[in-house]
Amino acid sequence: MSVADQGKAPLLSVRGLTVSVRDRGVLRPLVADLDFDLHPGETLAIAGESGSGKSITSLALMGLLPNNVTVSAGQMLLDGTDLGALSEARLREMRGSRIAMIFQEPMTSLNPVQTIGTQLTEAIRAHEPVSRRKARQAATEALRQVRIPEPERRMGQYPHELSGGMRQRVMIAMALALRPALLIADEPTTALDVTVQQEVLDLLRDLQRETGTAVILITHDMGVVAETADRVVVMQAGRMVESGPTARIFDAPRASYTRELLAAVPRLGAGRLRAMPAPPETPQPVARLTDVSVRFDIGANLIGRPTHQVHAVNGVSFDIRPGETFGLVGESGCGKSTIAKALTGLVPHGGRIEVQGAVIDRSSRAARKAGCRDMQMVFQDPMAALDPRMKVGDAVAEPLLIHGIGDHAARQARAAELFERVGLTRDQMSRYPHEFSGGQRQRICVARALALKPRLIICDESVSALDVSVQARVLTLLEELKAELGMSYLFISHDMAVVENVVDRVAVMYLGQIVEMGSRDQVFGDPRHPYTKRILNAVPVPDPAQRGMRVPSPPREIPSPIHPMGTRPASVPLRDMGEGHLVAQ
């Protein structure tokens, strides 16, 4: 935003905003006394951890608060019109035409039974008196503006036929089709891979420059804030603790909470300061994968036989050494989580998988059960991984019950010991999952994974849904457990800054195959494969001084992993560049 723009009247002026929830007949504030201004063409970031009031603020501005939540005080003036005083009919007119919103998860925001074209034209015709043909032309042009290839063909597709990045582009096209004065983006890139995140943020920046739309960016990713925002509002527990220009917030934060938030942000390059040699190669690794492939049959011909196969994993080989954290990185659909499922025997696979010298065999139930003793998993969403009807103490003790280890008293004692080990108390064992924060629930999942004293723990995006400070505490816990118990980790993530700070060795996957593998310093300090360079270049840097220094990568479509029956993708051989640094040729 230019100096001239700063002298203009604000587009949006929020004064003393208080949003309260009615709980047992009592009003309890979720957001209290919030003040900020937003000028035309400006990007304002509202940052903070879960529960700070960021999303509630955006829903209040849109008039989309739940029935038991109300604006109990304050004003939200958009060009002088108080949004809180408008009727639902008037608000409906404003949404889309004057104020629009992009939600975090595009798949839940798009109607799965309607085509992209139907949803876009419906949004346009709801606010403009145009014919269906004119609305369809405008919708196609909106898709073209957000750089979606073949927009005419995409108009006839359904949301599930598009990638996550494409779906988010459709949401942006829908939000900007009527050129609103204000766009609210609520965690628009949290669920996206780092390269897709870069493309979406670059797109938003370009569209904002062309249309002059003001943007409120709601996020807990301080790297995204540093790269996109003109000013920042930092919130904690429903209150604004600090606000100011982005450069000042990062260079000289005044509030202790802001300093803690910035200190917890993982930074690419910081991991190399952790001078820790990788565990030596041993004849008996904890896990060894040899030429592993996973394929899924799809389609059907006239007699019901499959016509195509999804080649999710194609000829992958690596081993995990005792006491090592081995990282698997890559974009969604590259095969990371499928490898985790193959390791745990949840999907059929070709090739050979060994854990502690024993071959993983899906055909034998006893072998699968025995394999669970040596290998456990911590999933991405701890709330979905815990039974909401089971007390957390029983959930942690359940693996011992399944394997017939100890009596009830011994299992409860072991669970209590694990609770204390992960930083919780014995008193909390009698509570249910909904009574804990996200970070505490993930600690419970870690405790459950430790119950059988496994040699290998698979962490599948286990910290990606957590706030940065909670994420830092969980990662520190995992590091302490590794040092204390000598276990190994398979750490799966698309967050390159987190990966660099925790792994000893790392493999980069693309379209079901490994394209680069080596020690942390080899892959992050001297990347050789173009794809590795691309994803490292896309990592947002939490430093406003470096804004604009990154060369944006052009958008590209990832080739399809689907092939006709009887054909398979070509395998890419890995060449040793020296000291075990393997790169696809």
Question: How would you explain this protein's 3D organization?
Answer:
The protein has 585 residues and is α/β, with parallel strands linked by helices. The protein contains 22 helices and 23 strands. It has an eight-stranded mixed beta sheet with strand order 16-17-18-13-19-20-23-22, with helices on both faces. It has a six-stranded mixed beta sheet with strand order 6-7-8-3-9-10, sandwiched between helices. Strand 7 (182-186), helix 9 (194-211) and strand 8 (214-219) form a beta-alpha-beta unit. The protein is globular and about 70 Å long. The two termini are 45 Å apart.
Low-confidence spans? none
What is the overall pLDDT average?
87
What does the overall shape look like? globular
Number of strands: 23
Structural class comes to: alpha/beta
Keyphrases for this structure?
single chain, globular, alpha/beta, 585 residues
Give the secondary structure arrangement, pairings included.
Layout (H helix, E strand, L loop, with lengths): L2 H4 L5 E12 L2 E13 L4 E5 L6 H9 L6 E10 L2 E2 L5 H10 L1 E4 L3 H4 L6 H10 L6 H14 L5 H4 L9 H13 L5 E5 L7 H18 L2 E6 L2 H7 L2 E6 L2 E7 H6 L4 H8 L23 E12 L9 E13 L4 E5 L6 H8 L6 E6 L2 E2 L5 H10 E4 L3 H4 L6 H11 L5 H14 L16 H13 L5 E5 L7 H18 L2 E6 L2 H7 L2 E6 L2 E7 H6 L4 H8 L24 E3 L9 E3 L5 E3 L1
Helix pairs in contact: 5-6, 6-8, 8-9, 16-17, 16-18, 17-18, 18-19
